[in-house]
UniProtKB/TrEMBL annotation:
Function field: Catalyzes the reversible cleavage of L-argininosuccinate to fumarate and L-arginine, an intermediate step reaction in the urea cycle mostly providing for hepatic nitrogen detoxification into excretable urea as well as de novo L-arginine synthesis in nonhepatic tissues. Essential regulator of intracellular and extracellular L-arginine pools.
Name of the molecule in the record: Argininosuccinate lyase
Domain Argininosuccinate lyase C-terminal: 338-405
Oligomeric and partner information: Homotetramer. Forms tissue-specific complexes with ASS1, SLC7A1, HSP90AA1 and nitric oxide synthase NOS1, NOS2 or NOS3; the complex maintenance is independent of ASL catalytic function.
Record family assignment: Belongs to the lyase 1 family. Argininosuccinate lyase subfamily.
Name of the gene: ASL
Keyword Amino-acid biosynthesis recorded: yes
Superkingdom of the organism of origin: Eukaryota
Length: 434
């Protein structure tokens, strides 16, 4: 039958079950990791005296030929190939004969599955890390170049306080990176950091998969929030940013439309990643110890999240690097009522408790609204009817640059703080693997 198992079975597997059971359609992308693992294992067999040096050489040469076929696209799959492990071993046997059967000595496909997936994820996470590094570098460069631009900060989608545009960009640079999912396992030959402490846990443990999927979910959460902000900021009602044509589409009906499809797709793909993460956790929570076939679900989850993140990170980098900001519209959106908190802080610096200062500032806002004036248009005499602590220096409160500069604490929106954030992120980027 060509199966790695048999012996105790009579008859053949139902064709529908055969198709239902197979994973070669998606796990074939682990072909290189599977061959890498088999090479390492064959060396271990030779060291243990279970293979001769000649047999080892024969197996390694055969595996190189299998790898060459995968690499140049000439590998021919067989309908009996359940998965990548079956396919590679079947082809190896065709190339070198019965010696190939010795490769599986003392080895279970369950071992291969988890080892191959760890190896594949280690290499693939390096690619995601590189894309993430590029995105963060782009955000930091824009933050430094545009740190003099002020615009409204929003809470509840209501204008709150003036902030630096750079402060907003840097707030999106906290998604972290996906490295570190390959904590434990096997051989020096495979460059793993350690061996698993328990053989039962080794074949069933999928913490490294769950951590990768959770990282993807968390990273996509931050990217979705950034996308949502930019979608809003790009509307005609705001006009703070303008996306490049390269990352926009038009309408088949309305010629004036320029749609932020790239941002909307980033936002929409979050659900896909969340679903894969939740789905794997639901699978894991119902399993008894050691390997169960349910764990075959892990690879489709990993591959889909990797493919999604791989495209999203690159598109996000393109969006950030090419979008234009409209400084005039940003500054025009600033309004004196956003300085009401600063008015309260002014009174606090004069010695008034904050709760009373907050109330006094609220009364000033109410007075301005009643008189149909901007908050900054209230006269000193009018302000002094609220509190005698108001003096002529209150005029300094109505300066937006003064407003942002008072937030000197680390992480704030003052220029010195933004400069510090930029330096911190540059330092973090230097520590990431190239």
């Amino acid at each position: 039958s060509g199966k790695l198992w048999g012996g105790r079975f009579v008859g053949s597997v139902d064709p529908i079950m055969e198709k239902f059971n197979a994973s070669i359609a998606y796990d074939q992308r682990m072909w290189e990791a599977d061959i890498q693992g088999s090479k390492a294992y064959s060396k271990g067999l030779e060291k243990a005296g279970l293979l001769t040096k000649a047999e080892l050489g024969e197996i390694l040469c055969g595996l190189d030929k299998v790898a060459e076929e995968w690499a140049n696209g000439t590998f021919v799959q067989n309908p009996s190939d359940e998965d990548i492990h079956t396919a590679n071993e079947r082809r190896l046997k065709e190339l070198i004969g019965e010696t190939a059967g010795k490769l599986h000595t003392g080895r279970s496909r369950n071992d291969q599955v988890v080892t191959d997936l760890r190896l594949w994820m280690r290499g693939s996470c390096s690619a995601l890390s590189a894309h993430l590094r590029t995105l963060l570098t782009t955000m930091v460069e824009r933050a430094e170049a545009e740190k003099d631009v002020l615009f409204p900060g929003y809470t509840h989608l209501q204008r709150a306080q003036p902030i630096r545009w750079s402060h907003w960009i840097l707030s999106g640079a906290i998604a972290g990176n996906p490295l570190g999912v390959d904590r434990e396992l096997l051989r020096k030959e495979l460059n793993f950091s350690a061996i698993t402490l328990n053989s039962m846990d080794a074949t069933s443990e999928r913490d490294f998969v769950a951590e990768f999927l959770f990282w993807g979910s968390l990273c996509m959460t931050h990217l979705s929030k950034m996308a949502e902000d930019l979608i809003i900021y790009g509307t005609k009602e705001f006009s703070f940013v303008q996306l490049s044509d390269a990352y926009s589409t038009g309408s088949s009906l309305m010629p004036q439309k320029k749609n932020p499809d790239s941002l909307e797709l980033i936002r929409s793909k979050v659900g896909r990643v969340f679903g894969r993460c939740a789905g794997l956790l639901m699978t894991l929570k119902g399993l008894p110890s050691t390997y169960n076939k349910d764990l075959q679900e892990d690879k489709e989850a990993v591959f889909e999240v990797f493919d999604t993140m791989n495209s999203v990170l690159q598109v996000a980098t393109g969006i950030i690097s090419t979008m234009k900001i409209n400084k005039a519209c940003m500054e025009e959106a600033l309004s004196p009522d956003m300085l009401a908190t600063d008015l309260a802080y002014y009174l606090v610096r004069k010695g008034m408790p904050f709760r009373r200062a907050h109330e006094a500032s609220g009364k000033a806002v109410f007075m301005a609204e009643t008189k149909k004036l901007a908050l900054s248009q209230l006269s000193l005499t009018e302000l002094q009817t609220i509190s005698p602590l108001f003096t002529s220096d209150v005029s300094q409160v109505w300066n937006y640059a003064n407003s942002v500069e008072q937030y000197q604490a680390l992480g704030g929106t003052a220029q010195s703080s933004v400069d510090w954030q930029i330096q911190q992120l540059r330092g973090m980027l230097r520590t990431l693997p190239q």
